[in-house]
Amino acid sequence: xxxxxxxxxxxxxxxxxxxxxxxxxxxxxxxxxxxxxxxxxxxxxxxxxxxxxxxxxxxxxxxxxxxxxxxxxxxxxxxxxxxxxxxxxxxxxxxxxxxxxxxxxxxxxxxxxxxxxxxxxxxxxxxxxxxxxxxxxxxxxxxxxxxxxxxxxxxxxxxxxxxxxxxxxxxxxxxxxxxxxxxxxxxxxxxxxxxxxxxxxxxxxxxxxxxxxxxxxxxxxxxxxxxxxxxxxxxxxxxxxxxxxxxxxxxxxxxxxxxxxxxxxxxxxxxxxxxxxxxxxxxxxxxxxxxxxxxxxxxxxxxxxxxxxxxxxxxxxxxxxx
Length: 322
Ligand code: FAQ
Description:
The protein is mainly alpha-helical. It is built from 14 helices and two strands; from the N terminus they run ααααααααααββαααα. The termini are far apart.
C-alpha cells in the first residue's frame, strides 16, 4: 500500500488562496491560515456579542410598550436578536472556540461589541429609531457578509438579514405612525433621530485610512466592502427615507453631490467613537454589568442542562431503572 505524503504548508496555503480567488467558501474542516481563523473569531464574536448586548437597550421598553401589538412586536424582535447571537456563536464554535470562552471574554471586557449599544434608549421613539437606523445600518453592513468567504458565517448571515429586514420595517412603521400623531410625538421622533444619527454612522467602523483590519479582511474575502463604502451606501439609502418620514438628519453638511452621484456628509466625532470602544461610553459599564449578572444567574440552567445531557447519553442499562 502506498501512503500519500501529507501536503506541506505551502501547498495548503495555495489551495486556500485558490479557494478565496475563486470566491468559493472555506469550510470549518479546511486548512486555513491562523491569521484568517483569528480574524474570523474576532469579527464573528464581536458580531455575536453585539446581538446579545443589543437586546438590552430595546428590552428596556418591553414593559412600557404603548399597546399589546407594539409589545408583541418588540418581544419578537428582541428574541430574534438572541437567535442571531446563537447562530453567530455557533459559527464561531466551528472555528474551535467555545461559546463559554467567548462570553467570559465579553464580560471581562476582553472582546468588543458594537459601539451603538452603549447609548441609552431615553424615549419610546428610540425603539423605532433603532429599528430604522440601527437595523438599517446593520442590513447595509451584513447583506455583503452573506457572501463572506467562511461558509458558516455567510450562511448564518442569510437568515439574520431576512430577520433584520423585518426589524427595519417595524421601526420605520413605528416612526411613521408617530409622525402622523401629535406635535409632541413628532418632536419625540426628531429628538431620537438627533441622538442616534451619528452613532449609527459610527457602526460601520473607523474611516478606511484608520481601519487596521480592512485591507487584510478584504483580501481574505471576509469583508466584501470597506467601512467608508458601506457608510456612504447607508447615507444614500437613508436620506430619501428621512424625507418621506418628515424628519431632519442632524448634519448641516449633508448634501447631494451630482458629480459623485452620492451625498456628501459631515464627519462623525471619531474621538467620541474611540472613547466608546475603549469602554467609556454612556452605558458600557451598565451593559456589561447586566450581561455578567444574567450569565451568573443562568449558571444553574447550564449546569442542569449539562447534567441532563450527561444522563441521557449514559448507556441504556445504567439509566433504565431511574
Ligand atoms: N463598535 O479595523 P476595523 C446589529 C473596532 S449587529 C465597536 O475597521 P473591522 C444588529 C474593530 O473591532 C452590529 N468596535 O475593524 C442589531 C477593531 O477593533 P479590534 C454589529 C468597532 O473588524 C440591531 C477596531 O475598531 N455588526 O446591529 C466598531 O475590519 C438592533 C478597528 O476597526 C457587526 O459586528 C464599532 N462600531 O471592521 C442588534 C457586523 N467598528 O477588534 C440589536 C460584522 C470598528 O481590532 C438591535 N462586523 N470597531 O480590537 C464588521 O463588519 C466589522 O467587524 C466592522 C469593523 C465593520 C464592525
